[in-house]
Amino acid sequence: MTTNNEHQHMPAPEAARVAVVTGGSRGIGRAVSRKLAEDGLAVVVNYARDASAADETVAAITEAGGRAIAVQADVAEEKEVAALFDRAEAEFGGVDVVVNAAGRMTLSPIADLDLTALDAMYRTNVRGTFVVAQQAARRVRAGGSFVGFSTSVVGTQFPAYGAYAASKGAVEAMTLILARELRGRDVTVNTVAPGPTATDLFLTGKSPEQIDQLAKTPPLERLGTPDDIAAVVAFLGSPAGHWVNGQILRANGGMV
User: Fold this and answer.
1) Whole-prediction pTM
2) What value, to the nearest 5°, has the Cα angle with vertex 29 and ends 190 and 166?
């Protein structure tokens, strides 16, 4: 087991950069995993439960000529996340980009919210972000990046999103603080806050009318796609995006 100090070595050559993507098996996480692999990074695709979806993501990457493995871990479990990073280092030699796309969403008016669902959501979205960020802060190599996930609902303030938006507000609150704590490490910390994006998570339970209404809300008059969000994440994790640090990027087509 290496110590924290041993993790702080020279930047990896571009061809040898490595990404860990939590929640990387489906939706936005899958698009991020594939985009980073296209950009030449070796990708560790983390998943919580759905091994077959993770295997599909890895297969899509390897068939396109990329490098990827799937590793199970619950982002809220410190030992499992440490083992996830250990596996990335053992398999590919280090970690340069960490994307915490794992998340959970329960919608309910605050007055009616099931507090068991609240606890489960905060365990994944708040504690999980801290656990993953903690390992990233200890291990990411110079020139690397941590990218967290929020939601544009922190700004739009739609009803029924109170608990979810509050959990993501916590992610936003830690972003600049962690960036400042990593002073001298040459590691950036940013958070991407998507707007309505056409994923299974978003589309489930919504009527065609609701989806159409949300699609018309941004000035660009469409829903985002997972690839739209993946492109932003890939930029933040790349040398080209390295001057962006401590920021919340609302990737939402122009919603408030």
Assistant:
1) 0.94
2) 55
